[in-house]
């Protein structure tokens, strides 16, 4: 498969409704953009294996009381824990958490380890095949997931072996990731649709690339996000900043002008205008 055809497939995702985007398959496409020499067929075969093991595990385990919503959710979480973390051997990648190379979905599958959102993508792939309701959440700083059944809800952590996250753990987590003064907010539990999950995944990669001063790689990652999320206007500001760092001033100017034209955030618009003014003064 040529890199051009991969790019076109990613761009086609930008024209789909968010829930029509195939989450795990698109993550593999994005990995192919980064590593076009890799054969993708074994990874698609692994996605099928994930589904098979989830189905097998769901048949093996028993629900204590199918008329009790909380018992059903407890059963479904046990299926995830058994299938994904025990049978398939996945785990949170604590050692390589900040290495952008480890975030590529090929590497996640090869190493059976990844960041929370990468593991969440694979878990959702398995659970969706069972027809159960599962969502990624917009919780800041650490990707979480929620199972739902007949009005009952159960939040769990895809990074730490699928452990359930009751309110006191969620409160501890938000203080850890955003500061001791932070408290839980209802907006942290909004549903992240498939496009938003992929944006979050790629933004994690971009952030690590910037940390390692891989500005070329980070700009490419921003551009790939634009292909499947063309209305994420903040990306145009991010891309403008990165292009300016790389002295790609024409590209920086075009990206910033698009951002200024489309954003409704007055503070960010001002920042973009100031950067644009600096760039124009420099090149003139």
Which key terms come to mind for this protein?
284 residues; alpha+beta; five-stranded antiparallel β-sheet
Give the termini distance in whole angstroms: 43 Å
**Number of helical segments with 4 or more residues:** 12
Shape: globular
Could you tell me the radius of gyration in angstroms?
20 Å
Q: How confident overall, as mean pLDDT?
A: 94
Secondary-structure-based class equals alpha+beta
| Low-confidence blocks of residues | none
Major sheet: size, sense and barrel closure?
Answer: 5 strands, antiparallel
Helix content: 55-70%
The total beta strand count reads: 7
- Tell me which oligomeric state these chains represent: single chain
Can you describe this structure in just a few lines?
The protein is α+β, with helices and mostly antiparallel strands and 284 residues long. The protein has helices spanning 3-13, 23-34, 41-60, 69-87, 105-111, 116-130, 167-178, 194-211, 215-228, 234-245, 249-262, 266-283, and strands at 91-92, 113-114, 133-137, 145-149, 152-157, 163-164, 191-192. It is built from twelve helices and seven strands.
Characterise the protein shown here.
The chain is 61% helix and 8% strand. The longest helix has 20 residues, at 41-60. It is of the alpha+beta class and 284 residues long. The strands form two sheets. A five-stranded antiparallel beta sheet has the order 6-5-4-3-7. A two-stranded parallel ribbon has the order 1-2. The mean pLDDT is 94. The chain is built from twelve helices and seven strands.
């Amino acid at each position: 498969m040529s890199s051009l055809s991969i790019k076109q497939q990613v761009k086609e995702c930008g024209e789909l409704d968010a829930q029509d985007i195939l989450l795990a398959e698109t993550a593999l496409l994005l990995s192919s953009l980064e590593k076009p020499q890799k054969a993708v067929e074994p990874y698609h075969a692994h996605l099928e294996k994930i589904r098979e093991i989830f189905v097998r595990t769901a048949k093996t385990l028993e629900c204590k009381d199918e008329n009790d919503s909380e018992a059903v959710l407890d059963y479904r979480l046990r299926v995830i824990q058994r299938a994904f973390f025990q049978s398939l051997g996945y785990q949170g990648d604590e050692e390589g958490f900040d290495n952008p190379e480890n975030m590529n979905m090929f590497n996640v599958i090869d190493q059976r380890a990844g960041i929370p959102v990468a593991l969440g993508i694979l878990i959702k792939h398995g659970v969706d095949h069972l027809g159960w309701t599962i969502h990624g959440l917009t919780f800041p700083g650490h990707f979480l997931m929620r199972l739902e059944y007949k009005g009952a809800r159960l939040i769990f952590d895809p990074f730490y072996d699928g452990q359930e996250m009751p309110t006191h753990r969620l409160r501890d987590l938000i203080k850890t990731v955003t500061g001791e003064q932070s408290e839980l907010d209802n907006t942290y539990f909004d549903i992240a649709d498939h496009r938003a999950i992929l944006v979050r995944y790629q933004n994690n990669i971009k952030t690590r690339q910037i940390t390692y001063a891989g500005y070329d790689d980070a700009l490419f990652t921003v551009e790939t996000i634009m292909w499947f999320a063309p209305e994420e206007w903040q990306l145009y500001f991010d891309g403008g900043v990165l292009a300016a760092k790389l002295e790609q001033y024409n590209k920086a100017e075009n990206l910033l002008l698009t951002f200024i034209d489309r954003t409704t955030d007055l503070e960010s618009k001002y920042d973009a205008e100031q950067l644009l003014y600096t760039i124009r003064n420099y090149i003139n």
